[in-house]
Specification:
Blueprint: E1 2-6, E2 15-22, E3 27-30, E4 48-50, E5 55-57
Antiparallel strand pairs: 1-2, 2-3, 4-5
């Protein structure tokens, strides 16, 4: 278990962050003191959820297939409209 102390020189929030070390990946991760409450993002639409590592993937809105128009921002001849 590691602890990072967050302090600022000027006005601002301060705090401590407790982390656990995952030697298999040589990285630090959130310390789950209360594992039954470790899903704060359960309302997010995720394409990949890996509870064993505490990570999840959020897909980009750009990848949505229900696009309103395939025309894009260009005219049919491929020239962009002048905004002025």
């Amino acid at each position: 278990i590691g602890e990072i102390i967050i302090a600022k020189h000027r006005n601002g929030a301060q705090g401590n962050v407790r982390l656990r070390f995952i030697s298999e990946y040589a990285r630090f991760d959130n310390l789950n003191v209360f594992p039954e409450y470790e899903t704060p993002h359960s309302d997010l639409r995720t394409s990949s959820l890996k509870p064993e590592s505490g990570t999840f993937t959020i897909p980009s809105k750009m990848n949505d297939t229900d696009k309103k128009s395939d025309k894009g921002d260009f005219d049919s001849n491929g020239v962009d409209q002048n905004p002025f």
